[in-house]
Write a structure and sequence with these properties.
Blueprint (H helix, E strand, L loop, with lengths): L1 H32 L13 E18 L9 E7 L1 E13 L4 E5 L2 E13 L9 E20 L6 E14 L18 E14 L4 E11 L11 H4 L1 E16 L1
Antiparallel strand pairs: 1-3, 1-10, 2-5, 3-4, 3-5, 4-6, 5-6, 6-7, 7-8, 8-9, 9-10
């Protein structure tokens, strides 16, 4: 089961990156072939704003607790990939010819799951159970962009930074939690990625792909709960494909 899951993850990653590369090649060819230079004075702006639309592949990164080896009711507990989407605002400040600072708060909707394989069937007769954890996350990323020279109506940039997440749907304080895996409200992590600016007469179209890794253990472990006790640490992982529309 684990090998099949790993193959599915790699397949999703490859499809996402392939789609992103094809989009980049098409738009890059069009931008370079245009003879009219749009928004020539944009680099002189001290700051500018925009909006963000994003899709993501999210999953948990888990580490099993030693109690997993001391029990015989759960054979497997592993995270699954799932999709989500985000909406956000964008504020960028020019620091120098090469560097820009960016603040990109977003509202993200995620469903992340953990798959369990049980030794003994549950009341419905099933030995395979998926525990879905729904999240509504307000994220506050602060990033530094390193950008290339502009080539016609095209530019490439790299970005890196940190983020702070607040899960508005956190179930960490749920009272009736016998069947839950509880997730804490606060998380923080690091991000890195690559993006492209395509200049048009009235806006800048910026597709971007980034990897986002949470650093905090967000698992609110309860040794008395069947599905929670076998897991020690849970950290967040995301691959995010974003479209920024900037002015």
């Amino acid at each position: 089961m684990n090998s099949v899951h790993q193959v599915n993850i790699k397949s999703l990653y490859r499809k996402t990156i392939t789609l992103f590369i094809l989009c980049f090649i098409f738009l890059s060819f069009n931008a370079r072939s245009q003879k009219v230079l749009y928004q020539e004075d944009h680099d002189n702006k001290p700051y500018y704003f925009g909006i963000t639309l994003a899709a993501n592949m999210a999953r948990f990164h888990t580490e099993l607790h030693e109690q997993f080896l001391h029990q015989d009711s759960i054979l497997v507990a592993e995270p699954l990939n799932s999709g989500g989407f985000s909406l956000g605002l964008l504020a960028t400040a020019r620091l120098s010819h090469r560097f820009e600072g960016r603040f990109n708060p977003q509202l993200s909707f995620l469903d992340r799951s953990i798959a369990y394989k049980l030794t003994y069937p549950e009341h419905d007769g099933e030995t395979s159970i998926n525990k879905k954890i729904e999240s509504v996350i307000v994220t506050f990323p602060l990033q530094l962009k390193f950008q290339s020279d502009r080539i016609g109506n095209f530019r490439v940039y790299l970005l890196g930074g940190g983020k702070m997440d607040f899960d508005l749907a956190s179930n960490a304080r749920a009272r009736k939690a016998e069947e839950l895996v509880k997730i804490q409200k606060l998380d923080y992590g690091v991000e890195g990625g690559i993006g492209f600016n395509f200049y048009f007469p009235s806006f800048i179209f910026s597709p971007e792909i980034k990897f986002s890794n949470g650093l905090r253990n967000i698992h609110s472990r309860d040794e008395n709960l069947k599905f929670s006790s076998v897991i020690d640490r849970i950290q967040s992982r995301q691959i995010v494909f974003s479209i920024h529309l900037e002015g």
